């Protein structure tokens, strides 16, 4: 569901919906329940333990939030070469980078992309032309594994200096466009990223909890 449609259903502004997604403002319980009801879902109260794990989450959130605009651009620029080399292939940014591009306070370790199954041969062409290595589970290294994504093996490659992980779907998922550093990147919406990555969902849940209790 788009932010515009969610805002219309709740009688709120699209900007408010965006701020809720990024953990900047806290929604009321009523708003949360009405939003989940759109998808025939209900809210269930959960708890999280305190201790080392929670402190690590807070450290990550605070560290990323303290980044300057230039630092944030530098994070995205880390993947500049990969974006250029993958230009022949349609893709959508997902994972931690996708969330980061939407303002989520997450450390970014690698590039996660969603690619449509019909485009895998084009992706293989990129890997072959740039002599990429695929993760070899037996050797625990990027070496000696068949590069073509249609062949068995982990969907992990080394593309220049970047680790790339690929999620294959029948067709490209819905995306939003994020402009950064002179590029316009198709990015999976934050809510969809959270559904697919429990680690990211945990961080964002902590972000929203902190807003509620601030």
From TrEMBL:
Q: Name one GO molecular function term.
A: DNA binding
Q: InterPro entries, from UniProt?
A: Cro/C1-type_HTH (IPR001387), Lambda_DNA-bd_dom_sf (IPR010982)
Q: Which SUPFAM superfamilies match?
A: lambda repressor-like DNA-binding domains
* Any matching Pfam family: HTH_31
Under what name is this protein listed? Answer: Helix-turn-helix domain-containing protein
Name the source organism.
Virgisporangium aurantiacum
């Amino acid at each position: 569901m788009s932010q515009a449609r969610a805002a219309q259903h709740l009688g709120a502004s699209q900007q408010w919906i965006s701020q809720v997604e990024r953990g900047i403002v806290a929604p009321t319980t009523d708003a949360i329940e009405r939003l989940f009801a759109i998808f025939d879902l209900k809210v269930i109260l959960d708890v999280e333990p305190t201790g080392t794990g929670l402190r690590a989450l807070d450290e990550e959130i605070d560290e990323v939030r303290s980044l300057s605009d230039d630092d944030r651009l530098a994070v995205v620029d880390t993947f500049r070469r990969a974006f250029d080399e993958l230009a022949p292939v349609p893709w959508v940014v997902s994972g931690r980078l996708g969330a980061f591009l939407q303002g989520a306070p997450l450390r970014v370790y690698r590039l996660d992309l969603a690619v449509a199954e019909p485009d895998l041969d084009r992706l293989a062409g990129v890997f072959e032309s740039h002599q990429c290595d695929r993760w070899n589970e037996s050797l625990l290294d990027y070496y000696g594994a068949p590069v073509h994504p249609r062949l068995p093996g982990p969907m992990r490659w080394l593309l220049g200096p970047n680790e790339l992980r690929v999620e294959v779907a029948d067709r490209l998922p819905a995306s939003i466009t994020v402009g950064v550093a002179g590029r316009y990147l198709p990015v999976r919406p934050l809510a969809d990223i959270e559904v697919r990555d429990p680690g990211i969902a945990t961080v964002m849940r902590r972000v929203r909890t902190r807003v509620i209790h601030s």
